[in-house]
Design a protein that fits this description.
The mean pLDDT is 92. 38% of the residues lie in helices and 21% in strands. The longest helix has 18 residues, at 75-92. The relative contact order is 0.16. The strands form three sheets. Strands 5-4-1-3-2-13 form a six-stranded mixed beta sheet, with helices on both faces. The chain has a six-stranded parallel beta sheet with strand order 8-7-6-9-10-11, sandwiched between helices. The chain has helices at 13-19, 28-35, 67-72, 75-92, 111-115, 125-142, 160-169, 183-197, 207-213, 287-298, 312-324, 341-355; strands at 2-8, 41-50, 55-62, 96-99, 121-122, 151-155, 175-179, 202-204, 216-219, 238-241, 259-261, 264-267, 270-273, 284-286, 328-334, 337-339. Helix 6 (125-142) packs across helix 10 and helix 6 packs across helix 11 (312-324). It is an alpha/beta fold. The chain has two domains: 2-126 and 265-333, no CATH class; 130-263 and 334-355, Rossmann fold (3-Layer(aba) Sandwich), CATH 3.40.50.720.
Length: 356
């Protein structure tokens, strides 16, 4: 049986309180200062992940730093803490390591971590993109949009992930706009897409203007703050936010007529017992977690997705392997919370009312 490790971390101080009850009664800054002193924490032993072809087990290990600390503390210090957690996974017997949330963002996106460990490392970005695209298509359908007819935009299209998303979306849509900061890079990508698919796409450096005319938006910019505000979105708009830090302002939660998702949740085959402490529905995982499991099941003990470069071929390959081992899209998350079908139906109804 193959074994994997996966790194997680608290998304905010309230997550710390789930493990340490006293933290709920203390100021956030004090809690953040205290958890910096903690060693990596083994959050759970994963069992029951079984495809028709293989079975794996693994461990979730927490790096005790919040996103604010990961982005604000010295990079060398944060990488040292991530590597420390990776070595815990090694000692537990993991043969491949997955980097979750901001542990895959810091520094060079896993390259330094991999160099300092004796096992391969993957960020999970390939399957994150695959499920984001699947989720975007499904969310658009649930909101009444035909993706082949909708006005679709990719924000941050000149980055490696954005370009990959744009090239795959261009296989399916007819009205696609690429938004980013460099017009030269946007034009080069547009020419590449025209050669690959025959689709002539629009390009724009006006992100907010692009969002305001789009019915479906996939956003993956490298901005340090939100680039999409509630007033930018059409009633009934669908936004799939793959960026970390998030591109969509939390103020968008005020809009009850738009749907914002973070990509898809993944149904894990077998009878998985996933004790991550992240509040995920039973038997479901985030796509980055699932990529690590898929590679372990396949026996592909390699650094499959590492660094900031990503190719269409990688996304196609992990999609094929996911299907082979019985993984599939299960549901949505919005602003780190599960989004149930009833809520989506309510958003669609309110959007119809707003348009009327």
């Amino acid at each position: 049986m193959r074994r994997f490790g996966f790194l997680i971390h608290p998304l905010d101080v309230s997550d710390v309180a789930k493990k340490f009850k006293l933290a709920a009664r203390l100021p956030a800054r004090l809690v953040e200062g205290a958890i910096r002193l903690l060693p990596p924490v083994v959050m759970g032993h994963v069992t029951g992940v079984k495809s028709p072809l293989a079975e794996v087990e693994g461990w979730f290990v927490a790096v005790p730093l919040t996103p604010r600390q990961m982005m604000g503390l010295p990079e060398r210090y944060v990488l040292r803490r991530i590597i420390q957690a990776g070595r815990v996974c090694e000692r537990l017997g993991a043969e491949i390591l997955g980097l979750g949330a901001f542990t895959s963002v810091v520094g060079d996106a896993g390259i330094t971590v991999a160099k300092n460990l004796g096992i391969p490392v993957t960020t999970g970005n390939s399957y994150t993109v695959a499920t984001a695209l699947q989720g975007t298509e499904e969310a658009a359908r649930l909101m009444g949009h035909d993706l082949t007819q909708a006005r679709v935009a990719v924000v941050g299209a000149t980055g490696s992930i954005g370009a990959c998303c744009a090239r795959i979306l261009a296989r399916k849509v007819r009205d696609l706009t690429l938004a980013g900061r460099s017009l030269d890079k946007l034009d080069a990508l547009a020419r590449q897409i025209l050669g690959e698919t025959g689709l002539a796409v629009r390009v724009s450096t006006d992100v907010r203007g692009t969002v305001r005319r789009s019915q479906v938006v996939l956003t993956v910019s490298s901005a340090v703050g939100p680039v999409i505000e509630p007033e930018d979105l059409l009633p009934g708009a669908v936004v799939c936010d793959v960026a970390r830090p998030r591109d969509t302002s939390r103020r968008v939660m005020q809009r009850d007529d738009v749907l914002v998702i973070e990509g898809g949740l993944v149904e894990v085959p077998g009878r998985p017992d996933l004790k991550s402490g992240l509040g995920l529905p039973p038997g479901q995982a985030l796509a980055c977690m699932a990529e690590t499991m898929i590679l372990a099941l396949e026996g592909r003990l390699e650094s499959f997705t590492l660094g900031r470069e990503l190719t269409v071929e990688q996304v196609d390959e992990i999609t094929r392997l996911a299907s082979k081992h019985g993984f599939g899209l299960a549901g949505f998350r919005s602003f780190e919370r599960e989004l149930d079908p009833g809520r989506v139906a309510l958003i669609r109804a309110r959007a119809a009312g707003a348009r009327a």
